[in-house]
Amino acid sequence: MEIVQSRLLAAFPHGFTTREGGVSPPPFSSLDLGGGAAGDDPGRVAENWERLRRQTGLAFGRVRQVHGARVVIDPAPGEPREEADAVVSRVPGQAACVSVADCVPILIADPASGAVAAVHAGWRGTLARIAAEATRALARAAGARPEALLAAVGPSIGPCCYEVSPELAGRFREEFGAEVVGSEERPHLDLWSANRRALLAAGLDPENIEILGLCTSCAPARFFSHRRDAGRTGRQVGFIAPLP
Ligand SMILES: [Zn+2]
Questions:
Q1: 49-71 confidence digits (pLDDT tens)
Q2: pTM of the full predicted structure?
Q3: Using one digit for the tens of pLDDT, what is the confidence trace for 25-36?
Q4: Which among 13, 93, 139, 198 has the fewest CB atoms less than 10 Å away?
Q5: Residue 201 falls within a domain, yes or no?
Q6: Residue 93 C-alpha to ligand 1 middle, in angstroms?
Q7: CB-based burial of residue 85 (10 Å sphere; 0-12 exposed, 13-18 middle, 19+ buried)?
Q8: Residues near ligand 1 ion, CB 5 Å cutoff
């Protein structure tokens, strides 16, 4: 099982899964951690989760992701119940976890309290500044100071591959500036940069934000990509657990 890690978050149990190390057949090969909604066998998905639990020694607090901006604090591990798009965890051994397949997974950590957050930001969540909502929730729940937080922006569709309509590009230009949409004629969204801006506006230090720069659509052997595979694909996850 290949788990991608952030240099900034090295002190925390954390990672971004890849396709490697599971039991699902194509087009879900092989470590599909989705809910089986795209058609994968639920038994295989359950076995994939079991493998991730064995590999990491963690439990996973998740939510039913709905492309909003709501944050849940310390959800019980297991099947996701509440509708939200970010998770804060203050319980050691219990990771905050989000699933993605092009959308941006963002992991946030507070070295002072040890508390953490995981964020799912597609274009809707990015526009709704869910990264900033999660930062505020972490600050409230753990007494964290935003300027001390560390954040990593994980594997997701990059500006290389994410061409969008002029209408959507216009909304992003208005919210985050022209730099996040590229050229006028063929706009490509840079969700990494837009989320970085949201984190900076929420008070994070530029040196405390790491963008991994890994595009899911560019790497078919390594990552699931909803857009590249026209929906017939699995899900990878980003997770981070509090310091003991
Ligand atoms: Zn790409």
A1: 999 999 999 999 999 999 999 99
A2: 0.97
A3: 999 999 999 976
A4: 93
A5: no
A6: 34
A7: buried
A8: 158, 160-161, 215, 217-218
